[in-house]
Amino acid sequence: MSEDSKLRIENVTKLYGYGLLGLKKFKALDNISMDIDLTKPRIVVLAGETGSGKTTLLRIIMGMVKPNIGRVFYKGRDIHKLRGSEAKWYRREVQPIFQDPYETFNPLRKIDSYFYDTIRNVVGIKNRGEAEHRIDESLRFVGLSLDRVKGKYPHEFSGGELQRISIARALLTHPKMLLADEPVSMLDATLRVGILNILKNLKEKLNMVIIYVTHDLSTAYYIGDDISIMYRGTLVEYGPISKVYQEPRHPYTYALLESILEPDPSIRERYPAIKPSSIELKEFLIPGCRYANRCPYAKEICWHTLPPPTNVDGVVVRCWKYLDYKQS
Ligand SMILES: Nc1ncnc2c1ncn2[C@@H]1O[C@H](COP(=O)(O)OP(=O)(O)OP(=O)(O)O)[C@@H](O)[C@H]1O
Ligand SMILES: [Mg+2]
């Protein structure tokens, strides 16, 4: 994979304050590294329970939040150093889709005005006819059209339609990559699959790379090619989704998958690991593996040293189980 054909997340750490006045710091993200090949159309799922750092990582990739340590390279360029025309280029290449379509659009503003703004200011098309053609093209990709949305306000659409509209707006710039933060979690179950199929279609027809954030592991499997599992700000496992689901390597991934795939609810309840709890912060502050507190295999080293990424049969896993202790 050459530098200019990948997204490289390199040792990213983000500190946030907590406690009185937020003066104490915890690592909302700790030493996250991940490479995504941009030449292969794919959906990379970012999964993990609430507070694991998924949105923070996405915002860092967007350039909206700066990491305290580490860098993000897109096609060889450090995205937090882009200025002027390069920053504009990045805004065209990488587009976000947010969780709540009702928050994406101002209720007092007509939907089509967002499209004209993006076309003018980000894409740089000033000609009205050309702009309308491009807007219609992206709306048709999600099963709508410019005629259908023209002159209308957000409340005139259902949640599912609005989410399709926000996908269409993201497509206006002909992006290479979409960053979708739980795009279906606010929608009725019946509407979800329609949106998921649109994303799959974008991958296949437009050769896109989509980072798809969720904590729903069933839809993750339906949509994903690769998965990266996060726990309390650390990336514990990353690889092809079929491999990870068939044979989870990290004990946390194992517990997480057992709990959703187990049809018997009485057995499911034996895995409290996936429920957020008040000891969340305590786990964030463990200097080693954040899962040490709950892991049946935890040893001394797990508590004080974060394991380095190890390639285990095509899956990257961060767990001392797979490492020779002498490496520490
Ligand atoms: N601006 C901020 N200031 C302080 N703490 C923050 C800030 N943003 C996020 N956090 C904290 O960082 C941690 C990670 O948050 P983040 O929103 O990235 O998690 P998430 O995985 O997206 O969770 P969810 O599934 O609930 O959306 C949480 O403990 C959160 O409270
Ligand atoms: Mg989030």
- In terms of structural class, how would the helical and strand content be classed? alpha/beta
CATH superfamily: P-loop containing nucleotide triphosphate hydrolases
Q: Measured on Cα atoms, how large is the radius of gyration?
A: 21 Å
The number of helical elements comes to 14
Q: Which strand-content bin applies to the residues?
A: 15-25%
Domain module count? 1
Mean pLDDT: 91
What helical percentage do the residues reach?
25-40%
* Bound small molecules, deduplicated: adenosine-5'-triphosphate, magnesium ion
Question: Helices and strands, in N-to-C order?
Answer: EEEHEEHEHHHHHEHEHEEHHHHHEE
Main sheet overview: 8 strands, mixed
Shape: globular
**How is the CATH topology named?**
Rossmann fold
What's the N-to-C terminus distance? 29 Å
Give me the CATH architecture, please: 3-Layer(aba) Sandwich
Protein name: ABC transporter ATP-binding protein
GO molecular function: ATP binding
InterPro entries: AAA+_ATPase, ABC_transporter-like_ATP-bd, ABC_transporter-like_CS, Oligopep_ABC_C, P-loop_NTPase, Sigma_54_int_dom_ATP-bd_1
Organism: Ignisphaera cupida
In brief, what are we looking at here?
This protein is an alpha/beta fold and 328 residues long. The protein is 38% helix and 23% strand. Helix 4 crosses helix 5 and helix 5 crosses helix 7 (159-171).
Topology:
Layout: E1 6-18, E2 24-37, E3 42-47, H1 54-62, E4 69-74, E5 77-78, H2 84-93, E6 94-97, H3 101-104, H4 111-123, H5 128-141, H6 146-149, H7 159-171, E7 177-181, H8 189-206, E8 209-214, H9 217-223, E9 226-231, E10 234-240, H10 241-246, H11 251-261, H12 265-268, H13 280-284, H14 300-304, E11 310-312, E12 315-317
Parallel strand pairs: 3-8, 3-9, 6-7, 7-8
Antiparallel strand pairs: 1-2, 1-4, 4-5, 9-10, 10-12, 11-12
The chain binds adenosine-5'-triphosphate and magnesium ion (MG).
Magnesium ion binds at residues 54-55, 181.
Protein name: ABC transporter ATP-binding protein
InterPro entries: AAA+_ATPase, ABC_transporter-like_ATP-bd, ABC_transporter-like_CS, Oligopep_ABC_C, P-loop_NTPase, Sigma_54_int_dom_ATP-bd_1
GO molecular function: ATP binding
